[in-house]
Amino acid sequence: MSEITGLLKKYFGYNSFRSNQEAVIQNILDGNDTFVLMPTGGGKSICYQIPALAMEGTAVVVSPLLSLIKDQVDTLRENGIVACTLNSTQNESENRRARELCLNGTAKLLYISPERLLGELENGIFKHMRVSLFAIDEAHCISQWGHDFRPEYTKLSQIKSYFRKTPIVALTATADKITRDDIVRQLSLQNPRTFVSSFDRPNLSLKVVKGLGKKQKINSILDFIERHPRQSGIIYCLSRQNTETLAKELAEEGVSTGVYHAGLSNSEREQNQNDFLNDKERVICATVAFGMGIDKSNVRWVIHYNMPKSIECYYQEIGRAGRDGSKADTLLFYTLGDLVMLSNFAKESAQQGTNLDKLNRMQQYAESDICRRRILLSYFGEEMDHDCGNCDVCLNPPERIDGTILVQKALSAIVRTEQRVGVNLLIDILRGSRRIEIISAGYHQIKTFGVGSDLSFREWQAYLLQMLQLGYIEMAYNDGNTLKTTNMGRKVLMGETTALLAKVKLETTTAPVAGKRSRIAEAESHLSEDEQLFEQLRKLRYKFATLEDVPAYAIFTDKSLTQMVEDKPVSMVEFSNIAGVSEVKLEKYGQEFITTIRKAIGKKRAKGDTYKETLDCVHKGLGALQIAEFRKIQPVTVYSHLAYLVEKGDLTDWSRYISNDEIQAVARAAEKLGHTTELKPLHEALDGNIGFGIIRLALSILKNK
Question: How far apart are CA 569 and CA 593, in angstroms?
Fold first, then answer.
């Protein structure tokens, strides 16, 4: 295990593994099939990349998206790992080179789509190369019970027919129990060991806002973005039209926003996605088509303009925020309109029962007045014995009120309209609206007309949502989405029982005012010294990303930049201690980042710094030649530093750098020459067998003795 920890530090810049990673890696190294369920940002890739580096041959990684494959390959190459791909976007020369690297065993990882893999299995490259393992990424795509079903994945069981003894590892971030079992069965995994990591992402704040109209949503989003200056975020919408409209309205308020949906051309989608991944655009409005392959580690927030169709989708989408482990915020807008639209979609789907059930669980989450994180974890079979303290329910616990009269007013109006009205019409009746539809139907003459005029439209929406959730009313999706009373509701209406509701507290938003554009710009311009340094490092990262033609996070994540700002490393040794700084990245980028940090904090290189840097290398256990190579200085200079450190009393164990025989030889030669300390005569007296640097170190040791 010390070997794989060394690989982790060398190639990825981390000193230790996260939860379950080490056990997963060992199971793969033992040659066993493995199933890994690990949340987005939990480090799934490391689970097969480290074994790939440790084992003979080439690991084959199956991935569903070419964009995801490109990002993975680029990131691995940035870390000094030989990785390649076979796909139709490469020219023949590039594919031929990839084949050569796999056939001669140079490539440690080959990324490939499921379609391409199936084509290569029988008569392709796999017959002639040594495959160390197969990794099936986004494995939930194999199951019709999963939320991203892809038919081509269902044929991957063929792998076992050709490679019976080669370990297969299946990895996914979201899968309920039925999906997990389906993945194992369809891939024909042999006695796989299953690893399920905690689904808890404590760095993500969770917030739900109910019942906002279109204008109120936009105002709320603008306020949200204003509170998150210079941060990247995703806004998910249900429809293509919503993405276009919202992006345009945000742009008019000074928020440059990209768009991503299936209606765009391939080139437009790719360009917009790359602009977001490379920090050219901070905000992107997208449909769920903007899904897998978003490996951007510095997304600081995710907004759902509409409610998702399932908790799996919701969890996967909010999981794209805070992948680096730093604080990130999520916001979900929920309206009855979303519920009606999604219910209709579910009813028209091939798996009506399953999809309606999943939607119902999502509805329960959105309407809940208990800790939202506990609901999420419970859905994935994980228990949490305390409230999280980082969701809107925990931070602002609901106030309970006796809602019996409110429920009776709503139920009475439903009954008196013969259960033929939908939500909006019911609210208008309760509030006493005299629009034509109400007058022509005679609803203005029923006893409950106008009895709820003391509440706003949004307040009634929020209370009706609670009544639906609590089972006092139900919505007939097969009868024009009209509202019906239930047995439980009739008991409240007849006064046989009471109804306890959570008091509605409406979200307040700032109305659009002239100057919103300048307010957002102003929020971006007032930076502390540390924030200014972060921006300088971010720009330097972007420069390297542009030169290398890779996403910015492939150079360093925001978490690494944040640690640089906090620790302010001013030497190569200190910089090597930053999480995510691999050996290759230290070599390629270290000096420029250190120079930027030194300049920002006004620190010039003092004489003592160079000795300290050598001492840091000594503490890391490096030999003299290793120190010279690491610090880009001559070995004789290293020995000069070691001699100085001995005389200062900072270096007391010099056994790695000089032997006792060498010290005694120098002592005898010095004594013969009248206790001289001149290096050249001593070097000649020793017949040139001991170098100048070692002689100087020996003299310092003898002097101290």
Answer: 9
Lateral strand order in the sheet of 34-37: 83-85, 109-112, 58-62, 131-136, 168-172, 34-37, 193-196
Alpha helices by DSSP H, 88-144: 92-103, 114-121
Question: What pLDDT is recorded for position 514?
Answer: 47
Nearest to 323 by CA among 33, 535, 694, 18: 18
List the domains of the chain with CATH numbers: 2-196 (3.40.50.300), 204-389 (3.40.50.300), 400-502 (1.10.10.10), 527-605 (1.10.150.80), 608-704 (1.10.10)
Alpha carbons 88 and 95: distance in angstroms, whole number: 9
pLDDT in tens, 213-242: 888 899 999 999 989 988 899 999 999 999
* pLDDT at residue number 509: 54
Give the Cα-Cα-Cα angle 486, 352, 380 (nearest 5 degrees). 85
Mean pLDDT calculated for residue range 256-274: 89
Pairing mode, strands 131-136 and 58-62: parallel
Strands of 174-317 (E only): list them.
193-196, 204-210, 232-236, 257-260, 283-286, 299-304
Higher confidence at residue 504 or residue 108? 108
State the pLDDT at residue 608.
64
Tokens for 628, please give them. Answer: 């010279």
Residues 683 and 695 sit within 8 Å (Cβ to Cβ) = yes
Dihedral sign of CA atoms 160, 166, 167, 173 in order: negative
pTM: 0.72
153 secondary structure, DSSP code = G
Residues 6+ apart with CB under 8 A from 23: 195
Mean pLDDT of 254-281: 88
Which of 73, 20, 21 shows the shortest CA–CA distance to 46? Answer: 21
Helix (H, G, I), strand (E, B) or coil at 122: coil
Contact 152, 114 (CB under 8 A): yes
Report pLDDT digits (tens) over 44-91.
Answer: 899 999 999 999 999 999 988 777 788 889 889 999 999 999 988 888
pLDDT higher than 80, residue 694: yes
Give the other-Cβ count within 10 Å of 502's Cβ. Answer: 18
Place of tokens 């009209």: 482
Question: Residues 418-422: contacts with CB within 8 Å, 24+ apart?
Answer: 419/482, 419/483, 419/484, 419/485, 420/482, 421/482, 421/483, 422/480, 422/481, 422/482, 422/483
Tokens 């392709």 label which residue?
A: 124
Rounded to 5°, the CA angle 615-621-627 comes to 60
End-to-end CA distance of the chain: give it in Å, rounded: 41
Q: What is the pLDDT of residues 144-174, one digit of tens each?
A: 665 567 788 888 989 998 999 999 999 988 7
